[in-house]
Amino acid sequence: MITLKMSALKNKNEQSAQHAEHVEALSTSTKITWRELWEHRRVLAWCLFIFLLPINFGYENSTVGNLLAVDPFLDQFGVDVNGTREIRARDQQILNAATTVGLFCSAFATGIISDILGRKKTIIFGCVLCVAGIVTQYFSNTLMQLFGGKLLGTFGFGLGHSLGPVFVAELAPVRVRGLCLSLVNTMIVLGQWLNSAAVLGSKHHTDSLGWRIPIITQMVPPGLLLLGLPFLAESPSWLIMKGRPEEAAKSFLKFNGPRFDVDEAMTITTAAVAQEQELARTGSAWLDCFKGSDGRRTLIVCMVYIAQQFVGVNFVSGYLTYYFKLAGVEDALSIAQAAFAIQLFGNICSWPLVDRLGRRPMIVGGMFVMTGGLLLIGLISISQSQPALKATVAFMTIWGFLYQATLGAVAYAVGGETPSPLLRQKTYSINIMSATAVSCAVLQIMPYLLNTDEANLGGKICFIFFGLSVPMCVYLYLCLPELKGRTVADMQEMFQAGLPARKFKNYVSQGQIDIEMHKTKNLEREE
């Protein structure tokens, strides 16, 4: 009898949530306007604030590649190879391992810590660890000290990097969800550019400050976040989960403004939390990420992020400066700084497109163009002439622009919205762990492919990434669905029906039918 009552209550909550979402979706068939962006400015501002720690993610991703081109860093930690100072491949592996291990562990721990402490306190904890790691790196004098500082700092900002998209996905209205989630990559690219700017600004220092200043400037994002955290509201989902609905309603208003429909949001969130708590009691929540339609969702998200690694983002974003230096580019730091600025501009170009063109055209189209670009760069790099070098630098810069305007930005929209609400944090954690594992493999091999005393491939490394990206193009073309403007109920219906990816865009859900019927009835009443 109790089971029947729980089932009835669950169905009632699901129906109420779906009805509320369908009401919200009344206007999703039209393109988002600047007026709507202005109306949602409060939400966008909170998203940018929550995404401050991903700045450190981008900063850290570029740190090793940029510092490998800094003479004081090479003097202190490098060795002489044929008259040139280099960091040994093994030592590069140590530094890269700190980043990947820290991110992997934080991705696994985020869900556990955030469920216990709450989203807000988890971010505070991440900021404190991040600051401690940065201070340790600044005062380091050995590679192992740098390793320890990077491991600690990476775990700290990794908590914010893993939690941020899930936090925002719980709050963002359907109309601007894609833009809100793509802002993660904006902050990551901003961090890459800021790191390059800090390295360039410190190049006049001939002592250890030449590399210590770019390290300590990482303090700014977590510092700003700690200053503003007293004003940040807790996640409404977590508050409802802890039996504090009044505080959850206040959080919704704080994030969205006084005119926000709190009752609608509370209905949707309460239903989702009730289902998640019921699922958690079975003890199989992690396994459910790999079962049925949820398993398909997990695979889609993971493959989109793995595609970033296979297409060569670690080379163009992380090792760009080092490659320029090895290739003999004059003033490699300045050229790389300009290249990162162009990548940032490319990311900004994605803002109006992610909710206009949709996720699938931008990711699949971008992958095909970038894969062709890798083949072109590899062919040009066969020549060792000066014109070929200039052409390689130019095309790598264009490639970086295209990456940040397509796959780099839109992957975060896919990662935040594709998982079911019940498994969102767990699915995203699995995604970060899988992408980090692939990134670790790439970063461990790359020093041996690039260093002049090893394979010394230079731009010809693009042939390897070309071979890896071709099967990813095939997978994404066949399996990546279009979820632009879809509500949670729509997605649940389509995934459970097992629709092929190509049919998602034009599929008419029951919710859309209900909306059209609602419009028809209103017109009949007016007449």
TrEMBL record:
Membrane topology: Multi-pass membrane protein
Entry keyword Transport: yes
Residues that span the membrane, as ranges: 43-59, 94-113, 122-139, 151-169, 176-195, 215-233, 299-320, 332-354, 361-382, 394-415, 427-445, 457-478
Domain of life: Eukaryota
Keywords: Maltose metabolism, Membrane, Transmembrane, Transmembrane helix, Transport
A Pfam family of this chain: Sugar_tr
Keyword Membrane: yes
Subcellular localization: Membrane
Main localization of the protein described in the UniProt heading: membrane
Major facilitator superfamily (MFS) profile domain ranges (all copies): 46-484
InterPro entries: MFS_dom, MFS_sugar_transport-like, MFS_Sugar_Transporters, MFS_trans_sf, Sugar/inositol_transpt, Sugar_transporter_CS
Classification via PANTHER family: ALPHA-GLUCOSIDES PERMEASE MPH2-RELATED (PTHR48022:SF5), PLASTIDIC GLUCOSE TRANSPORTER 4 (PTHR48022)
Family the entry assigns: Belongs to the major facilitator superfamily. Sugar transporter (TC 2.A.1.1) family.
Name under which the protein is recorded: General substrate transporter
Organism of derivation: Aspergillus cavernicola
Taxonomic lineage: Eukaryota, Fungi, Dikarya, Ascomycota, Pezizomycotina
